[in-house]
Amino acid sequence: MPVNATKETLKELTATGTVVVDFWAPWCGPCKVLDPILSALEKELSGLKVVRYNVEADASVPQTLGIMTVPTIVVYQQGQPKEKVSGVYAKEKLKRYFEKKLEAAR
User: Where is the Thioredoxin domain (predicted)?
Assistant: First the structure.
């Protein structure tokens, strides 16, 4: 189950391993579509951690990352943001993408 992050907890939550941060907003329809996909993939893929960040609660972190739209996912590896992808994608496409990121991190 994805963990909710705040500005204060994001650094700690992304410090190790491969972490996908889902930048979302409560009013965002596509975000509601993406949420169960990310939850399922977190269960299916060993080593993948999903964190959710509500941009409406605090927009300072998304601004520093250049996030202009939601949903946007940022892949962190060992505490560093490595890649950013905006929009909703099919579960299988995201699964293949995350598998490549996990494999590259090994």
Answer: 1-103
Q: Choosing from 31, 61, 67, 75, which is the catalytic residue?
A: 31
32 is catalytic: no
- 44: annotated active-site residue: no
pLDDT tens figures, 19-45 = 999 999 999 999 999 999 999 999 999
Report whether pLDDT(65) > 80.
yes
Give the burial class of 23: count Cβ atoms within 10 A of its Cβ; 0-12 exposed, 13-18 middle, 19 or more buried.
Answer: buried
Task: Residue 17: give the domain boundaries.
Answer: 1-92
**Entry pTM:** 0.94
